[in-house]
Specification:
alpha+beta, Thiol Ester Dehydrase, Chain A
Length: 154
């Protein structure tokens, strides 16, 4: 771990986002097209930021963007139209200009059981609208530090 890298203690807290798979994400094979999983993950990251108290529009108002520089995704089980899913999102580490999200998509069944369908890890860098790297806003980092001390949130 780099000296300026910050990691939440032990197991990371996560935010839960519940979504029903919409029809437009499904392909002719009746499953969610592999590239469309990223739409669901993006919705969950936006929800995480909103619940953190730092909606993505605040980055945009500062002419900043979190751009994905590395992505890893493991598909375990297919998702289908109208599946009720719960997406867990958490930040595993952050540095002055970058951070990493860990996300899991679970299918929820009628009995309340959750089946892991997808794991994803995203490394992101904060950039200005002109494309140059920028430090993460201090107030955002402060909210991450507060969040890292919490357990799972709804």
């Amino acid at each position: 771990m780099a000296k300026s890298e910050h990691r939440p203690e032990a197991s990371i807290p996560f935010h839960r986002t519940e979504i029903r798979v919409p029809l437009f994400e499904v392909d002719l094979g009746k499953a969610v097209y592999h590239g469309n999983y990223f739409h669901l993950l993006e919705l969950a990251r936006e929800d995480f930021l909103r619940c953190l108290g730092y909606p993505y529009r605040v980055f945009m108002e500062q002419q900043l963007h979190l751009t994905i520089v590395e992505l890893s995704c493991a598909y375990r089980k297919a998702l289908h139209y109208d599946d009720l899913v719960e997406i867990h999102s958490g930040v595993t580490w952050w540095r002055s200009r970058s951070l990493a999200f860990e996300q899991q998509i679970y299918r929820l069944n009628d009995s309340g059981d959750a089946q892991l369908c997808t794991n994803a890890t995203l490394n992101m860098v904060c950039v200005r609208f002109d494309g140059r790297p920028s430090v993460l806003p201090a107030d955002f980092v402060g909210l991450l530090q507060q969040w890292a001390g919490k357990g799972p949130s709804d």
